[in-house]
Each structure stands twice: as C-alpha cells, then as structure tokens.
Amino acid sequence: MAITFTSLLLWVVRIVNDFEVQGNSLERLLAYIKIEHEKPATEEGNPPAYWPASGDLQVEGLCVRYSEDGPKVLHDILFHIKSGERVGIVGRTSSGKSSLTLSLLICIPTQGSVKYNGLDTAELNLDSLRSSITIIPQVPELLSGSLQANLDPFGQYNDVELNYALCAAGLFALQDKMDEGRITLDSTISTGGTNLSVGQRQIFALTRAIVRKSKILILDEVTSAIDYKTNSIIQNSLRQELRGDVSLITVAHRLQTIMDADKIMVLNAGRIVEFDSPKELLEIEDGKLRALVEESGD
Question: What does the pLDDT look like over 136-170, one tens digit per residue?
Fold first, then answer.
C-alpha cells in the first residue's frame, strides 16, 4: 500500500504539472484579449472598388512613435511620390528608413496625413490598406506546403498567371530547364523556407508582388543578403515588369541599386534632409548623398 501510494502521489504531481504547463496557453490567450487591439473594420472604412487606381502617395506632417508614450522616431515627414515614380530611401543606421515603411502600413502609432491615391489611410480599414500595398522584407517568410500555396494561398490565380510571374521575377534565369531539382509550382516548401536560399525567397516574394499587381511596392533592404547575380536578376525584373503606374519605394543597402531612381530620399535622425533626383543631389558639394557615395567606394 505504501508503494502504491507513492506511485499515485508521483502521478498526481505529474498531472498537476502538466495542467500548469497547458495553462500557459490559456494565460497567453487572456493576455492577447486584454492588450490594446488595432481598430476593427467598419463599413465606412471600405475603399471604393476602383481604389487604388494609381500609386500616388502624399505624406504631410508624419510623426511616428513605437509606443503611444515613446519618443518620436520620425519628425514632420513631408514628401509626395507621383504615380509610377521610383524612389530610393537611404541613410545611416537608425535614421528611420524602416520606420517610414512601417508607418505607411500603420504598423506603429502615427500622426499626420498619409494619402494613398487620394484617400487618407487613417480612415481606411487596415486589411484593405495592407492588402493593397506589397512589402518585400530582408528575409521573406514562407509557409510549409507547395510553392503554389505560398504564392496564391486563396486560390485566386491560375497556373498560367503564376508561372508567368515566376518567369518575370527571374526564377527560371537562375536554373536550367534540364535540372532535376528545378523548382516548380508543385515543389515542397519547408517551414520558413529553410530548404531555399535567401535569393530564391526574395524572388518568390517578388513573384507575389507581380501577381497581386499592387500600385505601391516597398523593398526593404532586399539586396543586403543575396549574391550579385541574383541581385541583377531581381533589379532587371523590377525595371521590366513594374512599370506604368506602380510606385516603387526602395530602402537601399547597396547605393548602386537606386542611383537610377527618379528621386532619392536621404534620412538623418528621423528627418528628411534631402529629397531630389540623384543628379541634383550629387552636385551638392556638402550633400549627404554625395558623402554616402564617396564613403561607399563604388
């Protein structure tokens, strides 16, 4: 009886411990319920069916914080990107480049006016705004499953459109048609895309952008971790496929990738210090862009 009681006691302790561990999930759910949420979708926040018809972006007096009571990381940002313009954003570390891209998607608290194709983004439903802007981060995330499921998770496009987008993004330029391990729509993608190179993940992210036909495409340091050949293919795809009324905003890591842009924005300590064509900025004797170019050694 003593041995049986000891065994039962150990079993009770194990059950209680397991219940405590499982309770962590419930505690996490309660924490998510109590935290401040993003504004819910409303009928008034739905944009017109034609929106967005162009990539026109007008920003006035934009101030950004990472918390409601935190310090400002962007101060009185003012600029206008016309539809179809290619704009490069440069600056030193912590100048506010990534913060600016997050503020366009309202991922952090913002103040000021941001008008996308004539509509104030603060009045739009967040799902409508974010589904109309495509951002390609430094390391795109992929889900486990087929490549087709990653490119078109809601089944909105056919195989012809997806294959065309893959070709336009430059995937087939990286692999031989006779290669046994060549990637197709049926190829299996592991969790996080760990069975792919960073360059291939960037190409798949660009493919998503081509398929979605967004009027604003944001590239956040996409060339910082890929080789020269893949970078050349991606840059060529951007120039060939994303033309017309698609506005391209590039947060630059390699200055040579944005020197043919229509305009370059130079940020410093959360403020715009220069915003003009590359030719005009390089002619400024003590200019910020000119200093960055001279330091780069290219």
Answer: 887 788 888 888 888 888 888 888 888 888 888 77
Both tokens of residue 68? Answer: 């409601």
Tokens 């330091």, residue?
295
Helix, coil or strand: residue 184? coil
Look at 19-23, 51-55, 57-61, 292-296 and tell me which has the smallest mean pLDDT.
292-296
Paired with 120 in beta bridges are 115
Of residues 39, 58, 217, the one with CA closest to residue 125: 39
Query: Average pLDDT for residues 271-285, to the nearest whole number?
Result: 90
Which residue in the block uniquely carries the two structure tokens 């305009």?
Answer: 263
Q: What is the DSSP letter of 258?
A: T
Give me the DSSP letters along 20-88: HHHHHHHHHHHHHHHS--PPPP-STTPPPTT--SS--EEEEEEEEESSTTSPEEEEEEEEEE-TT-EEE
- pTM score of the predicted model: 0.78
Whether residue 174 contacts residue 236, with contact meaning beta carbons closer than 8 Å, is answered with no
Residue 22, judged by CB atoms within 10 A of its CB (0-12, 13-18, 19+), counts as exposed
Cβ pair 198, 139 in contact under 8 A? yes
Q: Is 171 exposed, middle or buried (0-12, 13-18, 19+ CB in 10 A)?
A: buried
Pairing of strands 86-91, 72-81: unpaired
**Token pair of 204, please?**
């798949």
Q: Which residues pair with 217 in a beta bridge?
A: 134, 248
Give the phi and the psi of residue 235 in degrees, each rounded to 5. -65, -40
Closest among 236, 155, 170 to 202, alpha carbons compared = 170
